[in-house]
Write a structure and sequence with these properties.
alpha+beta, five-stranded antiparallel beta sheet, 3 helices, 11 strands, 18% helix
């Protein structure tokens, strides 16, 4: 199980969670180094440390107090050399009709969003949704495009020429 999803085949996760938005907060996060995909939209907040997200032909650096938005179905994997990585993942089953939700985004979390995420940690790993949780996480989801100020310098293209890969690694 990873972030509440069940891995039945390596890299493919089944979603047996009934609630629309699921919160997973983990201190001392450990990651797998292989691609995986799931049918939920993923918001990841790095509270401490940093993570590299490998998505398609890019590597996204997500430092402390930053977020990454990953659309549903996108293969990705993470890595980090940080001694400690604390992060929160919120998986959304459905999103609003807005182009924002169909692209990868990396951005700093403004103070109000950090407070919202800290408050949302009270629903960590809960599989039963209450009314407050539903309204709160829907409001958070709706606000994301307004909080997003892209950090273009936090993505690195992977070279197409295989001779450059050892140098980049």
């Amino acid at each position: 199980m990873k972030c509440g999803l069940l891995e039945k085949i390596k890299g493919e996760f089944d979603d047996e969670i009934n609630i629309d938005a699921y919160v997973w907060y983990e201190k001392d996060w450990t990651h797998d180094d292989y691609d995986h995909a799931h049918q939920r939209y993923q918001l990841t907040y790095v509270e401490e440390g940093y993570q590299y997200f490998h998505i398609e032909n890019k590597i996204y650096l997500v430092p402390q107090n930053h977020l990454i938005w990953i659309p549903s179905g996108k293969k990705h994997h993470t890595q980090s050399e940080a001694s400690t990585v604390n992060l929160m993942v919120i998986l959304f089953k459905t999103v609003f009709d807005n182009d924002f939700y169909n692209k990868v985004h990396v951005f700093a979390a403004p103070p109000v969003l950090r407070e919202m995420l800290q408050y949302a940690s009270k629903w960590n790993k809960l599989l039963e949704e209450d009314e407050e949780q539903g309204y709160f996480l829907t409001a958070l989801l709706n606000s994301l495009p307004h909080f997003c100020t892209e950090k273009a310098g936090l993505q690195i293209p992977i070279p197409a020429d295989p001779r450059l890969l050892p140098v980049c690694n």
